[in-house]
Design brief:
This protein has 109 residues and is α+β, with helices and mostly antiparallel strands. It has one domain. Helices cover 29% and strands 30% of the residues. It contains two helices and six strands, in the order H-E-E-E-E-E-E-H. The chain has a six-stranded antiparallel sheet with strand order 1-2-3-4-6-5, covered by helices on one side. A hairpin with a 4-residue loop joins strand 3 and strand 4. The chain is globular. The N and C termini lie far apart (31 Å).
Length: 109
């Protein structure tokens, strides 16, 4: 895995676990982040070949301002993990922009 992606994932992991008791479950195709009330907050897929991290958040897509190349409505599209909003992270700036969505998903869980 490229160093830039490893560093970005470390920051993402910190952001996903910063707001309370979260269980991190590495699965075969993705990493699940669940609140201890057994509700998925986010699913994370590392794509080192494309140097991108995909984060699927448990949010209603109509409640999010979707931005092409950054967020996407995943309803009706098959994917690993849980969540209807996909967030593409390729830099620390993307993670900073995604932080309010991550917090919102955590609070809604």
């Amino acid at each position: 895995m490229p160093d830039c992606l490893r560093d970005l994932y470390a920051e993402l992991d910190e952001a996903l676990t910063a707001w309370g008791e979260v269980e991190v479950s590495p699965l075969r195709h993705y990493i699940a982040y669940r609140r201890l009330v057994n509700v998925n907050v986010a699913s994370v897929i590392l794509r080192p070949k494309h140097e991108v991290i995909l984060v699927y958040l448990r949010l209603a897509p109509e409640s999010v301002e979707l931005e092409e190349g950054f967020t996407r409505d995943m309803r009706g599209i098959g994917h690993f993990g849980a969540g209807d909003v996909e967030v593409r992270l390729v830099s620390a700036a993307d993670l900073e922009k995604a932080a309010p969505l991550i917090r919102w998903a955590f609070e809604a869980a």
